[in-house]
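Standup notes, structure subgroup. Blocker cleared on the magnesium ion input:
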Amino acid sequence: MTVSLEQLRRCHIAVDLGAARTRVFVKGTGLAVDEPSAAAVNTRTGALIAVGALAERMTGRTPDYIRVVRPVTGGTVVDIEMAQRMLRHLLGDKLRRQLRRKPRLRAAVSTPHDSDPLAQRAAIETLLGLGARRVELVDTLIAAAVGCGLPVEQPTASMIIVCGAATTQVAVLSLGSIVTAQRVPVGGNAIDHAVIQHLRHHHELMLPSQSVRPLQLALRGTGLTADGPSRTEIHGRDVATGVARSVIVDTAAVRDAIYTPLTSVIDGIGKVLRDCPPDLVADLADSGIMLVGGSALLPGLDQMLHEATGMPVVIAERPDVCTVLGMGAMLDGRIRPMVLDPLADAQGA
Ligand SMILES: Nc1ncnc2c1ncn2[C@@H]1O[C@H](COP(=O)(O)OP(=O)(O)OP(=O)(O)O)[C@@H](O)[C@H]1O
Ligand SMILES: [Mg+2]
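Run returned:
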């Protein structure tokens, strides 16, 4: 699915449409957009009221006639028209004018490794609607591996885990290609959901959707690890009476709740390793696992994966933007094309 570097070098913008965040890299400008993939719509008139961070802040706080929608779920654009309107607003007038000046605008968009033709078509249509004449699809795993500086073009194995909001993708790469990969439908959203359910069942406390992140921040430093305070105070609403109240929560129990969805990620790693040729698995014991994606920032996730697999685990420098920066590096021509047939090359010289 991944296009040649030559084609990518001709692109003007690269877009990563994620379930949680939308990121756009513009050639010559750099990372131009990094905003939540959300739009607030007036359901009476159909008008767009807000996009990005402002729309996300409105979630759960809107009157009846305003709805916050998310046009991307699980790595797939489910509402093409809304995704186009959202992208147009996120780009802003200045960038849109700048792009309109390009008579043959070319765009690159990342799609999950095993995305089906329908999902690929939806991503392409979204960008065609933005004025692109040609759209190239880039495999998220390759883009992320390039973005975090893995030696993808070398004949050694690298394992990458892209921890997104809706999905987690695990892959082993060697010689610039994906050797084996798995997509697990578990990500940051499932972890948030696990925390919400835990508080509902064990403390009869309802959390406003926005405060799950503060909870994770309260667990910061402890996260999934056993150090740090054993209890933390959480504010919410009583499930039965609806009255605001706060409870003291045992952080170890929250850790257990978070651990449950993560077991399927460990399963996914196991499957990838089983499908991987033994020589490459031997490489992985040294090189370890590279974690990218926003959920890689979940405190303690690296340690948990290290304990589960016994392999060294490293978090990328800027895990959340690796995918789009990887595409950016390919657009800028900072990645040298791989010479897959060096012998023929030498003869030609
Ligand atoms: N500091 C943090 N601690 C824990 N989780 C975090 C942190 N920062 C971001 N996240 C989580 O990362 C997720 C967003 O990651 P990312 O931006 O990679 O997703 P995405 O690319 O939009 O999603 P996908 O790739 O699944 O379509 C959210 O679910 C969010 O909860
Ligand atoms: Mg993503």
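Discussed briefly. DSSP finds twelve helices and 18 strands in the chain.
Next: hand off to the docking folks.
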